[in-house]
């Protein structure tokens, strides 16, 4: 009996150590390094919990009073280059050079939609991470009519369901969600229990990061680091034909944008703007490679759509910049993404736009 009791006590102590100490055994850059680990979060969206916890711990450890949050899709994420050629990297570098004590945390993800951005803002509040200084990246295709794809909440449907059921019901028609939020059966209950584990229990929350850490150790023992080279679009002859395919042409449709909340993009933008009222928020539209997509960009209706978006933000009195026509085509790696040098120029431009923010 005493032996059983001792085993239970040891098990309890071990469980407590795992719950509260596991995250300290993993190097922070395994979880977050200038941006989240996309491959881990896309395969299991609950992995964003570890990222948010890591950022919260960094803010507390470094006693940060000010920091900038970047939210957006693959442009905000700074694809296709490495993390040390991303917007957050360039921002942090400038902060050090100018002796400013603030950090930039990039929570963008490729394919992230405005519904995801809104959900991340809700998650930041849950983790008590300030959204006083936020930069949001949008793209032209986000305003294009959906049929119903792409879903307005691409990654974080379950998180939105938990945090804002009304917004979740607006988003629901745009993706295949088998169960209504109020439906409960054993299968749904099982999924919720599993999700709870990955959100709250360290051994599950950090499982994928532990595996990545061990893989990185093994890779370093086996070979040298791989150097990532990003080619400019001019060296990718296949792009011209690829971008003529319907799935890409749809992204640049010049059909007039619907600029009221019947457009889910506007619905979530309205919620984001309302949530960020009174805070430092900069929203920017990623530029399109005007040389590669000349016929699309020069369409009068395309240009009118850009004006519609600009009028929307003017009416909302939001700090907004449209980078169409403002980015040198030599900085593009394809139709919308940039080379590392392009992201540096973009970061420099954004830096100037937030120079009046109180970030000292």
Folded structure, characterized:
The protein has 360 residues and is an alpha/beta fold. It has one domain (2-353): 3-Layer(aba) Sandwich (Rossmann fold), CATH 3.40.50. It is 49% helix and 7% strand. The protein contains 18 helices and 5 strands. A 5-stranded parallel beta sheet has the order 2-1-3-4-5, sandwiched between helices. α6 (87-97) crosses α18, α7 runs parallel beside α15 (264-275) and α8 runs antiparallel to α9 (165-171). The longest helix is centred in the first third of the chain and has 20 residues, at 2-21. The radius of gyration is 22 Å and the shape is globular. 35% of the residues are buried. Residues 6-18 and 177-187 have low confidence and may be disordered.
Essential attributes:
5 strands; single chain; 7% strand; 360 residues; five-stranded parallel sheet; Rossmann fold
Could you state the order of secondary-structure elements as H and E?
HHHHEHHEHEHHHHHHHHEHHEH
User: Order of strands across the widest beta sheet?
Assistant: 2-1-3-4-5
Main sheet overview: 5 strands, parallel
How far is the N terminus from the C terminus? Answer: 61 Å
For the record, the CATH class is: Alpha Beta
Helix proportion of residues, in percent? 40-55%
Which geometry do the CA atoms define?
A: globular
Number of strands: 5
Overall pLDDT, averaged? Answer: 86
Indicate the proportion of strand residues.
5-15%
Structural class: alpha/beta
Going by CATH, the homologous superfamily would be: SGNH hydrolase
Would you identify the regions where 5 or more consecutive residues have pLDDT less than 50?
6-18, 177-187
CATH domain fold name: Rossmann fold
Tally of individual helices = 18
Please give the domain count.
1
CATH architecture: 3-Layer(aba) Sandwich
Measured on Cα atoms, how large is the radius of gyration? 22 Å
